[in-house]
Every structure is written in structure tokens, then in C-alpha cells.
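Quick one, C-alpha cells below. Sequence please?
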């Protein structure tokens, strides 16, 4: 599904990705973890063609993504911070994004129901709470039914019930055979959903495998302690 070979990216003197090699198979939930500033969003944006790497190759669904844009039609992406014109009403932004992607699906109906957004459809984005905005962003992400879904901090601002609904939504997408890539600092969420994790540290992949393999490697009882032990070893 995704092949990344020897990917390098610098911002000025800041070497963010130092030769990333990663292979992600089709189907399943993969979590990209790492401390703040470790390059998770940069790696995701390289996959989406939003950041141009200095060197290296990325192939997504057998398409080399360099100088290509069509492959993006098959990816649903939730950015860490989504910015839409705040004067638009919720129903207007949904219609606009649907129009832009020439989508024929009606999937937004069930998503609006899932996240209980009916009372907000006629409200302007500027007037919504942070969590409600995030639910709108989730509708905008999941309504296209693409085979690859990339979620950058999807739980941001969500209350516990919405958190649970999101988790169930991600599971039901996985059951359809989709590939879901998630970054999150909420380790209990990652532990509940991820089939595999990739841990980025100082521009390199420190670990790539299952959570139980990481627990064995670090000799820790859960993901939180496993990550803490990596970080305390590297920053000690
Ligand atoms: N457009 C940019 N211009 C300059 N520096 C950037 C740019 N985007 C990211 N960086 C730098 O690259 C590094 C990695 O940032 P990135 O957003 O990929 O980290 P992250 O792992 O997603 O962090 P977080 O967990 O805080 O979201 C940081 O030092 C950041 O300041």
C-alpha cells in the first residue's frame, strides 16, 4: 500500500527526516508515534505531496507520487489543524467539500447522525466549540470512502462519547479492508486501535512492529510505560 525509501527532509538546518524506510501493507490500523517535533506530520505531509522531500521515494498504491496528484483522490486526510472559512455554515462546508471532490456518496448522512451534528448544520464554523469543529472535520474526512485514511491527531478536543464513536468508526472502516494511518499522543487510544506502530525519534525510525513486540523489547507492561522508557533512555 505505502512504500517509503530513504526519505530525507530538512527545514533549513533542521534535519527532520533522516533516511526513513517504511513499508505499510494494505488493510489495518497503523500508528505513527514520536515526541513533539519528531517529524510525524512532516512524514504524513510528504505522503500527501504537501511537503516535498529533499530525497527519497514514496509509492502509494503502486503509484510513484512525485509529480503526480491523482493518487490523492484515493486518500482521505484529517489534518492536525483544519482551517476553513469560519463564516460558512456546517452544511455549506460539507456541500462545498463534496462538490470539490465531485463525490457521489451520501456517507455524510450517517456520519452526521453518528456524531450527533444535526443541531449544528445551520451554525457557522466560527460559532462552534473546538470539539464540535473536530467532529465536522471528521465528517469531512470520512465521507469519501477512500481506501487509505490518514488521521493526524483525530481525538483532539473530543469528549469521551465522541472518542468512543470515533474508535468504532475506525474499526468499521478497517473491517472494510481499508488502511488507516493515525498519529496520536493519546496512548490509550493507540493501544486500543493500532495493529502496528512506528515510533519516530530524532528523524529516524526507532521501532516498527506490534505493541506487544514493543512491550517485550522495552520490558514494560503497557504502551505508555514502553514509550516512557524509550524517551527516558534517549533523553537521559
Ligand atoms: N513548514 C515548516 N517550516 C519549517 N520547519 C518546519 C515546518 N514544518 C515542520 N517544521 C519543523 O519540523 C520538525 C517536525 O515537525 P512535525 O510537525 O513534523 O512534528 P510532529 O512529530 O508532527 O510534532 P507534534 O507531535 O508536535 O505534532 C519541527 O522541528 C518543526 O518545527
Amino acid at each position: 500500500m505505502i512504500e517509503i525509501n530513504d526519505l530525507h527532509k530538512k527545514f533549513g538546518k533542521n534535519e527532520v527526516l533522516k533516511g526513513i524506510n517504511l513499508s505499510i501493507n494494505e488493510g489495518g490500523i497503523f500508528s505513527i508515534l514520536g515526541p513533539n517535533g519528531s517529524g510525524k506530520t512532516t512524514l504524513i505531509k510528504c505522503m500527501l505531496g504537501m511537503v516535498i522531500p529533499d530525497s527519497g521515494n514514496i509509492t502509494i498504491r503502486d503509484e510513484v507520487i512525485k509529480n503526480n496528484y491523482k493518487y490523492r483522490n484515493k486518500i482521505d486526510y484529517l489534518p492536525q489543524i483544519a482551517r476553513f472559512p469560519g463564516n460558512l455554515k456546517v452544511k455549506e462546508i460539507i456541500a462545498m467539500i463534496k462538490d470539490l471532490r465531485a463525490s457521489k456518496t451520501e456517507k455524510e448522512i450517517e456520519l452526521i447522525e453518528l456524531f450527533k451534528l444535526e443541531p449544528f448544520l445551520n451554525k457557522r464554523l466560527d460559532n462552534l466549540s473546538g470539539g464540535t469543529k473536530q467532529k465536522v472535520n471528521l465528517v469531512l474526512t470520512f465521507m469519501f470512502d477512500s481506501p487509505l485514511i490518514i488521521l493526524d491527531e483525530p481525538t483532539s478536543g473530543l469528549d469521551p462519547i465522541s472518542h468512543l464513536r470515533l474508535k468504532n468508526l475506525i474499526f468499521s472502516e478497517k473491517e472494510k479492508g481499508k488502511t488507516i494511518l493515525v498519529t496520536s499522543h493519546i496512548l490509550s487510544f493507540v493501544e486500543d486501535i493500532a495493529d502496528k506502530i512506528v515510533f519516530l525519534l530524532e528523524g529516524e525510525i526507532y521501532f516498527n512492529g506490534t505493541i506487544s513486540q514493543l512491550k517485550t523489547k522495552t520490558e514494560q507492561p503497557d504502551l505508555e510505560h514502553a514509550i516512557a522508557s524509550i524517551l527516558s533512555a534517549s533523553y537521559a
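The mean pLDDT is 92. The first helix runs from residue 40 to 47.
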